[in-house]
Amino acid sequence: MAKANERKHRIAIVGGGPGGYEAALAGAQLGAEVILIERAGVGGAAVLTDVVPSKSLIATASAAQSVRDSGRLGVQAFVPGGDGKPVRPEIAVNLAAVNKRLLAMAGAQSVDMLRSLEDAGVRVVQGEGRLDGPNAVVISTAAGGGGTDFDRVEADTIVVSVGSSPRELDSAKPDGERILTWKQLYDLPSVPEHLVVVGSGVTGAEFANAYRTLGSEVTLVSSRDQVLPGEDRDAAGVIEREFTRLGMQVMSKSRATSVSRTESGVLVELEDGRTIEATHCLMAVGSIPNTAGLGLAEAGVSLTDSGHIRVNKVARTNVPSIYAAGDCTDFFPLASVASMQGRTAIMHALGDFVRPIDLRNVAANVFTYPEIATVGWNENSLAEASDVAKAVSHTIPLSVNPRAKMIGFTDGFVKLFAWQASGTVIGGVVVAHRASELIFPLALAVEHRLTVDQVASAFAVYPSMTGAITDAARALHQH
Question: In which band, very low, low, confident or very high, does the pLDDT at 100 lie, cut at 50, 70 and 90?
């Protein structure tokens, strides 16, 4: 905390996404003078056009799927037909109403975050910021940043948290009507008749799952031999089987070379000469950092060839006064990681106790149906590090879990990894309904280096899905 007669530490934050927001709150809490510059709205793309609306859309789709699957629990919804006999009704999805709700909710979340910053004493400016050397930011309030600069703010510490944007291909330029990025999906007035999703990573898989559940015919174009190539192979296999069960067409080892408009929709051309005709196409081929034109290189900040900002485990760049957080960095592109980077950056800059971020401890989730949640080491990372022989694992299928049987959701598993010599828990994979809520016990175990015996000695409610975690831990007990 600054003394009464001492000048406060000045912090300028460019970008108000999760990283910038948390950095601003941390700075205000520690007594600094904080200004945050954001061009779209507090929360950034994560709140306005990405995480909040997309996961809300996925939750809506999951609700629809739960209704469809309720028959296996003995729940039957019928209406009388013309002959008086019961007729099972179809589930109707009003996508325009759904999208209106999602965007209103995202906007309200942004306003709530703005008020939190203002209540904390943070000065929030709507505009665009660019660095003017290592200790100053120039702000423009004109649309697009092309107007007259209205302010130059000197700062002891600068945090860059400008996020990323969907990657666009020249051969498949989005038009916001038929060829879309994930930011443009919320303008659709109705569920697409036939949606081609190009890209089978996390974003592509999540939206393919959601729109198929909402009623679209979906074709997923995957350049790999399996969807979700970055995930645990067993987990990805569960998801691909679920996609097939839902009636989705998954085109593995297929690469799209171009997408063009037709009179009635789109034409997707594949590398092997095949074509797909559909009504809409979602391009989910990665993202690029929003670092161009920010004056980073001029300030001496080191960037990767892709334009990402190089940072260390306390979110600091090679320039001592400049930190960065979120998708614009070369760290893990998750909102939770961005938030942690933002807080860590400020705590480090102000000399508070700070714990370097260990990406091995990061919990992540794929919001398909079922979800995939992971933390720590997995089979892929152990193999890459040649440590497979040093680790043991055990898998509990949900088909033997009593709670999973009760709720009628047995497609999935809990997999636990531990070091063979010590029994220390080093990672876990959960494939289940709301796996994102089940991974936290394993994240705690990994973070605090608990052993399988310590995890097994904790009481799990019976019956519960978490019981599968303690069961897996007990199976790894070392005699």
Answer: very high
Q: What is the pLDDT of residues 388-398, one digit of tens each?
A: 889 999 999 99
Which structural domains are found in the chain, ordered by start? 10-47+100-166+288-359 (3.50.50.60), 179-285 (3.50.50.60), 370-475 (3.30.390.30)
d(CA 455, CA 448): 11
Over residues 361-395, the pLDDT tens digits come to: 999 999 999 999 999 999 989 998 988 889 999 99
CB atoms within 10 A of CB 269: 16
User: Of 390, 365, 266, which Cα lies nearest the Cα of 54?
Assistant: 365
What is 38-103 written as a DSSP string? ESS-TTHHHHHTSHHHHHHHHHHHHHHHHHHHGGGGT----EE-TTSSEEPPPPP--HHHHHHHHH
Query: Per the annotation, where are the binding residues for NAD(+)?
Result: 199-206, 286
Report the binding-site residues for FAD: 55, 129, 327
By residue count, the chain amounts to 479
Q: How buried is 305 (Cβ within 10 angstroms: 0-12 exposed, 13-18 middle, 19+ buried)? A: exposed
Write the pLDDT tens digit of every residue in 128-140.
Answer: 999 999 999 999 9
The answer to whether the CB of 362 falls within 8 A of the CB of 414 is: no
Residues flagged as binding site: 55, 129, 199-206, 286, 327
